[in-house]
Amino acid sequence: AALGHGWPVVLIMGTMTASAGGLLRDVVANEKPLLLLKSEIYATAALLGSLVYFLTSLWLGDEFLAFILGLVSAFVLRALGIIFKLSLPRSPF
């Protein structure tokens, strides 16, 4: 958003960065990649955080506030998913 890119770029890059970072963390820690194994709310939380960041920076123009609100929204959704054992539907294939 700060570089003037539209919402598709912001949402895709935010989601990909968070997901790839988590995947890299698991590989470096020699653990099974959480992103690939379970249908937990993982990339969805990153997508929500990216969306909140984009909309906040667009409407309020404050990048720092947008960062904080995006971070908190992604964290809260991910934490609720873990606490309540929420998951996304799995493909039967």
UniProtKB/TrEMBL annotation:
Transmembrane regions: 6-28, 40-60, 66-88
One GO CC annotation: plasma membrane
Subcellular localization(s) per the UniProt record: Cell membrane
Transmembrane as UniProt keyword: yes
Main localisation: membrane
Chain ranges of the Glycine transporter domain: 3-56
Tagged with keyword Manganese: no
Keywords linked to the UniProt accession: Cell membrane, Membrane, Transmembrane, Transmembrane helix
Topology within the bilayer: Multi-pass membrane protein
Family of the protein in this entry: Belongs to the UPF0126 family.
Name used for this protein in its record: Trimeric intracellular cation channel family protein
Organism per entry: Hyphomonas atlantica
